[in-house]
Design goal:
This protein is α/β, with parallel strands linked by helices. It has one domain: 3-Layer(aba) Sandwich (Rossmann fold). The protein is about 40% helix and about 25% strand. The chain has twelve helices and ten strands. A hairpin with a 2-residue loop joins strand 1 and strand 2. The radius of gyration is 20 Å and the shape is globular.
Length: about 290
């Protein structure tokens, strides 16, 4: 193709981040990764990470190296978030965002570093012990409900680690009292729920064990806009009303940063940028690469 006909070189082409403009105006994934990597060269100091969380961090990750098998995904990663704070992780595909959640919950191989909650070292605890003894719950991406079970039975499953099944049933009743939308469908199989209702059920099931920390993986994925708003309203109530600490990965970067007290940008397994969520929303480089503008 002659140079003048190359759409990547043509002078009248305008490029923006994900979700902005037509196919001809969107930066490729490779370009986003390359340009994000350039931003990441300066990195973020441990002091800045601590400053954003305040004097009493509740969840703390120090110099974490983690991955799967022999593959290292996170390279000296630091994170701090206080009680009742929310933190949103954004970044290009393959940056290691979900690996952060997986590492906190015990789904990865830890090569070095430390993870603590409330001052307790939880680095090597199993996922089961992190839920039962450290109060960490993982809300998986969409399609994690048991479709053949009723809504009520799905909630009971959230208490599978409780010593007495009756406690799970009692907690389910509390949740039905809080969310009438689920109560109306308690006897329905989960497979008939709308996308928003399924997401509500997934969140509610994680609440049965009354966790202090919620790890939320892509809360808006696959949802219509009206249900996205509903889910973030629920998360806001859990943080502001019930005092939960929330760490999330969100592909809808604008929505995630609007919600979160703290925003992190990950690139190639390292922390590239960090700041208040609303400040990152206003950062021109974040906007260009991740917000479609």
């Amino acid at each position: 193709m002659p140079e003048s006909e190359d759409p990547q070189r043509s002078g009248d082409q305008r490029v923006t981040g994900y979700g902005g403009g037509s196919v001809g105006t969107v930066i490729s994934v490779e370009d986003v990764n390359r340009q994000a990597a350039a931003i990441a060269e300066a990195g973020v100091s441990a002091g800045r990470v601590a400053e954003l969380a305040g004097p009493e961090p509740f969840v703390k990750i120090e110099r974490l190296r983690a991955g799967y098998g022999k593959m290292e995904i996170l390279h000296g990663f630091n994170l701090q978030v206080a009680r009742r704070q929310s933190l949103c992780l954004i970044g290009p595909n393959g940056a290691g965002k979900s690996t952060v959640l997986h590492s906190i919950f015990g789904f990865t191989d830890i090569f070095d570093g430390r993870i603590s909650v409330g001052g307790k070292d939880v680095t090597r605890l199993s996922a089961k012990d992190k839920l039962k003894t450290a109060g960490i719950a993982y809300i998986l991406q969409d399609k994690s409900v048991f479709p053949g079970m009723t809504v009520e039975e799905n909630l009971w499953m959230g208490g599978y680690l409780m010593d007495k099944p009756q406690r799970a049933k009692e907690k389910a009743e509390e949740i039905f009292g809080k969310y009438p939308r689920l109560a109306e469908r308690r006897a329905h199989p989960a497979k008939v729920l709308s996308g928003g209702e399924r997401r509500l059920l997934e969140i509610s099931r994680a609440l049965v064990m009354d966790p202090e920390v919620l790890l939320v993986d892509e809360p808006s994925i696959g949802l219509e806009p009206r249900f996205i708003d509903m889910v973030f309203e629920i998360l806001d109530d859990l943080q502001r009303g019930e005092g939960k600490t929330i760490i999330m990965v969100e592909q809808n970067a604008k929505k995630g940063l609007e919600f979160a007290d703290i925003g992190y940008v990950l690139v190639s397994g390292q922390l590239a940028m960090a700041g208040p969520g609303k400040a990152l929303l206003e950062d021109p480089e974040v906007g260009r690469l991740f917000l479609g503008g």
